[in-house]
Amino acid sequence: MLLRAVRGGLLAGLLGTVATPALADYVTVISFGGANKAAQEKAFYEPFKAATGTAVVHGSYNGDLDKLRQMVEISHVSWDVVEVEAPELARGCQEGLFQKLDQRLIGDPADYVPGAVQPCGVGIFVWTTLLAYNQDRLQGRPQGWADFWDLKKYPGKRGLRWGAKYSLEFALMADGVAPKDVYQVLGTQGGVDRAFRKLDEIKPYIHWWKSGQDPVRDLSDGTVVMSSAYNGRIAAAQPEQKGLRMAWAGGIYDFDFWALPSGVWKKELAEKFIAFASQPAQQKVYAQNIAYGPTNRKAVEQLDPQVAANLPTAPANMADALGMNVAFWAEHGDALEKRFQDWARR
């Protein structure tokens, strides 16, 4: 009885992340919210209901898989489809948090950009974490991570996403490591020590963020003078926040993926949703509503050239970019995140 009560209390907490309507058929999709959610509603959720009669119940999270891990452990999974970043997809696939993807759902893998089709997921979009700043609050135009670390030229607080991932790569690039060499250097103990020493230089000036909307707010209200940020969130805010700018050099591009949790209740509906959202027509609509690149090549071909030029997949924006090394973070992520937590608390 006690175990049942504990499980019941835990389950109530887990289910509290979404509101489920009284519908015969619905699929629960967990994603990162904000401007991303708004674009997904137009490209995926609303058209899916119109095409199939199945509603999408949306819930937001920050990418932390602890809740999903708990649900899988008690065999009571209420999430049907989860948006997940590449390193977490790889680690979750290894742990058994995600099911293997039936690749017949998405058509020919050759239709997708390299890296978009993985054993446990299919890419939703390509995005970049880059340097962003507010031109109205800053003198000069920072060009890359060396400028981000230059406290004399650009005094004030600067924002970084909480965690080792991204912070260590940016630190090494600020210290002169070429993007193509970052993971080779970070794969050594000396490289890790070098990255943390570089972070030490600006530690008192770092304003940590966790939600993708945080940098937009912090840049707009002057909390920080510059910040790492998701390109799509900055682009979505630019019509109202005219001073927001992006520096693409040294950005880290990655995929977000759709994945099916192990033990998903509505597997058939979840698979239908993923298949639908992977179609070129839906990916085109998504890219038209937020500046993230489609993973389906046929969608890229359908985009207006002016829209395509502002996406992470544009050649000019990829020229000095770094691809997120999923294998590296799958192997070293736990140890580096632990060291980061210890470093941050000091």
Automatic annotation (TrEMBL):
Signal peptide: 1-24
Keywords assigned by UniProt, alphabetized: Signal
Top-rank lineage group of the source organism: Bacteria
Matches recorded under InterPro entries: SBP (IPR006059)
Gene3D superfamilies (UniProt xref): Periplasmic binding protein-like II
Organism encoding this protein: Pseudomonas delhiensis
Protein name in the entry: Spermidine/putrescine transport system substrate-binding protein
